[in-house]
Write the structure tokens for this entry.
Amino acid sequence: MEASFKGGADAWRKYLERNLKASTPVDNGASPGSYTVVVQFIVDKEGKISNVKASTNHGYGMEEEAVKIIKKGPTWEPAIQKGRQVKAYRKQPIDFIVGVSANESTQRDDPNEKSYEGTPKNFGVRVKTISNETYDFNENAKVAMDVVVDAKGKVISVTYQPRGSTTSSLQYIDIARGLAFQLELGSSDGGGKGMVVFNFKVKE
């Protein structure tokens, strides 16, 4: 059994939400897109972390931020081999997502702009407003997801789309990704692809 963050994937996600400065690449001028930073380190038999370093080089301060998050974190669950705790190497991916600004998104959707990329193909754009769910956030946001749908209308692939999104928060993106997989968008011969937009609004 490999070394792992105490509490599992949910605890790791919450730790990132509380401590990771997700705006780091935005603050340093990174282009829109998804960046995965991989941090490697050693977890000893007591779960203590050492030899922390990044194995990627995206730049824009992302590697430094990811290394800092690992170093300042709690002890990990040590690896288990033949029933005994052992020292082991660990590689941990950390995602940074850079969205486009509302102004840039508007320009790309304007046929009169040079950056216009055409209308969406297949089923186009669907807007899904979250109204019967309660989440812990304090600002309005929009998250766009590119989805692929099979012939029965079931969503089989979901990818965050910076174009059309107004936030790069991992919290919003994780929620939207989970909800997207629950959607049924109608059947079509051979399936289809398009974009689903989730609107998150703070209750007044």
